[in-house]
């Protein structure tokens, strides 16, 4: 099974690209969804987060206040690294289980949607890496619109990640999402065909 790392900058269109790959038949694993699962109420990650950050980061229904937590970690690198330290081993374990199930069921291509692939120096764990990128102004505008953030908040989140220009240098395949979804889809189809032909 071909193991592909899909990454990008925040609000560059990575999730849209992932759905397009799924539509073509690729199996996918989403790091953000796994992170939500391991921090669901009562889960091991949830207990670790509450133990470290405190109950002030809980909503009335006792679930994590993810927006409040995100605001903190995008302003405080030390707390961001601590959160990663708490959750990444749990996420890695769950991803390995999902990947194993796909392989056992005969999948030929599995894509792992992982925002911090390059930041965590994990490119060598994949058969190939795919970067979804767009220009900085588009990224900023999309993030502010999508998450209802101020310019300052959007910039803090963008700057918490490696610059896209640096990621372009590291990626095996780059998809430009600076135009529209039709152009994105064309690029995804072409790359999917390339990846499948290499894996068979």
Number of helices: 9
Mean of pLDDT? 95
Q: Give helix and strand order, one letter per element, not per position.
A: EHEHHHHEEHHHEH
How many domain modules? 1
Q: Strand portion, in percent?
A: 5-15%
End-to-end separation: 9 Å
Number of strands: 5
Overall 3D geometry?
globular
What is the spatial order of strands in the main beta sheet? 2-3-1-4-5
Please provide a brief summary of the model.
The protein has 200 residues and is an alpha/beta fold. It has nine helices and five strands.
List keywords for this structure.
five-stranded parallel sheet, 9 helices, Rossmann fold, 200 residues, single chain, 13% strand, alpha/beta
Question: What does this molecule look like?
Answer:
There is one protein chain. With 200 residues, this protein is α/β, with parallel strands linked by helices. It has a single domain (2-199), classed as P-loop containing nucleotide triphosphate hydrolases (Rossmann fold), CATH 3.40.50. The protein is built from 9 helices and 5 strands, in the order E-H-E-H-H-H-H-E-E-H-H-H-E-H. It has helices at 14-23, 31-38, 44-53, 66-73, 77-104, 136-147, 151-159, 164-170, 181-199; strands spanning 2-8, 27-30, 109-113, 128-133, 173-176. Strands 2-3-1-4-5 form a 5-stranded parallel β-sheet, with helices on both faces. The longest helix is centred in the middle third of the chain and has 28 residues, at 77-104. The radius of gyration is 17 Å and the shape is globular. The N and C termini lie close together (9 Å).
